Amino acid sequence: xxxxxxxLFVACAAVSAITAVSAMSASALTATPDTEANSVxxxxxxxxxxxxxTTILVFKGTAAVPADEDIIxxxxxxxxxxxxxxxxxxxxxxxxxxxxxLDVAEGEEQVYTVRxxxxxxxxxxxxxxxxxxxxxxxxxxxxxxxxxxxxxxxTADANxxxxxxxxxxxxxxxxxxxxxxxxxxxxxxxTADANxxxxxxxxxxxxxxPVTK
Length: 213
Hints:
The chain is an alpha+beta fold. The chain folds into 2 domains: 1-137, Sandwich (Immunoglobulin-like), CATH 2.60.40; 142-205, Orthogonal Bundle (Type 1 dockerin domain), CATH 1.10.1330.10. 23% of the residues lie in helices and 23% in strands. Strands 4-3-6-7 form a 4-stranded antiparallel β-sheet. A 3-stranded antiparallel β-sheet has the order 1-2-5, with no helix packed on it. Helix 4 (155-165) runs antiparallel to helix 6 (191-201). The longest helix is centred in the last third of the chain and has 11 residues, at 155-165.
């Protein structure tokens, strides 16, 4: 069943069209891995919408069009079913089993991408990434200031931290994203964190993250 759905997703003209447009804000979709349980919790912001046949895809790497062998999880359902309490986009998030696919050799690191797209793709697709392994051991590795977990610290991260700090409705950050956003290490995410990230992203001389006083 998985193989047939996978082929359908890769071959589908609608999804091919989706890969040609830009991804929507990573902040709308979050993914928090649990390496002990070999699963990942996925959540789509409550203000985000999908319609028609909806697909969720998890794959190794960050390719625009993943290779068949890199796809580790895929599921399809009507949008209403997908966002139901038992669906893969349940309101409070859904834990997806990875069946051993998050196993990474000691000392190594692997980046994974989670992508959600509906059959229309009018506004692009939702996408986020997460890491397993590396210096963080069993916990996902992260870089302070890299709030969207794309391995770069830029103004988009500052904007994401600011939106979260000002309590934007429907915006959810995973535990790892919150750790990355708390650059002044005071266990809170506020406008000061967003300001530090912005200053760092714009290359302020002498500024290092995290900020220690």
